[in-house]
Design goal:
DNA-binding; Dna Ligase, domain 1; 6 helices; Arc Repressor Mutant, subunit A; 2 domains; homodimer; 151 residues; two-stranded antiparallel sheet; alpha+beta; globular
DNA sequence: TTTGTTGCAAAACGTTTGCAGCCTC
DNA sequence: GAGGCTGCAAACGTTTTGCAACAAA
């Protein structure tokens, strides 16, 4: 099981995808993939760009380009949570989780709920083939609820 | 029941909100609210701005300003579906629904599922007070699935 | 050798902001 | 009359694009 989520097998998925779509296997692309898979949690293009700086310098354009490819082969997923930056996260080695978003401070928390996950994933459609999903619950986090009550 | 979703009662909610927060009751704000509530489906700031053109001319800044107020008093909700525009929709007189988003053509379809809605709405958290939620299922619509298979 | 990819910088895009004048309150 | 709101245009910040140089195939 652990092996399935190792960087080697992830890399293989990416290589297959690149080959199939006649894209080139550039060192930049693999460096970005590797960086993403050693990162825990949500990130955005700018965070990733700055993380890369230290290891293997790539341009921001290449970061965006590679994120697009990784989205297409489903190695990462994209969230449009707040206003500004799009957020990304790796899909393998990551438990499927749901998001709690505070409408006051914008903080994002994750939670897992197997029952909920199954309810959603088992929903089938005649004319739509689901590949993945996102569930966002909006509301007030503990801190903001107290602040608004006292303020 | 029908009365509860009429424009008059919606307007009252907005008026209450404006009064409570010491905001002014300007004709622009009511014109925008009215336009939104006579519109079916998702819209974005630009669509709304263009719709207003014919009836009661307002600036784009005012559109954004008013959308912000309507969000705060929960008369509309905001979706960050694709990349570009944020999408909005009215909340009253609208069944709670979920979204199917085609990852190929970007088309958004809605569906309702009472059981799923209840499962999600009944999930409680110790340190988070949920106000609303969004569920997005990503995948391929019928048309795109066929196109990709044949292409 | 061919052609996809890179880095750079400039452009594009939706959204936000600053400001003078206007209009609720 | 005071101060919040409007329209306008300019600014903002993220993402995309055009192009010349480069490198994978």
């Amino acid at each position: 099981m652990k092996e399935d989520n190792s960087y080697e097998s992830i890399k293989e998925i990416f290589t297959e995808y690149l080959k199939k779509h006649k894209h080139r296997k550039t060192p930049e692309r693999y460096a970005i993939l590797e960086r993403i898979y050693s990162y825990e949690g949500h990130f955005n293009a700018d965070i990733l760009y700055n993380l890369m700086e230290a290891e293997y310098r790539v341009s921001l354009a290449t970061v965006y380009n590679t994120l697009e490819l990784l989205l297409e082969c489903k190695l990462i997923i994209k969230h449009q949570l707040g206003g500004q930056f799009a957020q990304y996260e790796k899909t393998f080695g990551n438990n499927t989780h749901h998001h709690l978003i505070c409408t006051n401070c914008g903080k994002v928390r994750e939670f897992t709920d197997k029952q909920l996950r199954i309810s959603i994933q088992s929903r089938k459609f005649a004319h739509f083939q689901t590949s993945h999903y996102s569930l966002y619950l909006y509301g007030l986090c503990h801190k903001c609820k107290l602040e608004l009550k006292n303020g």
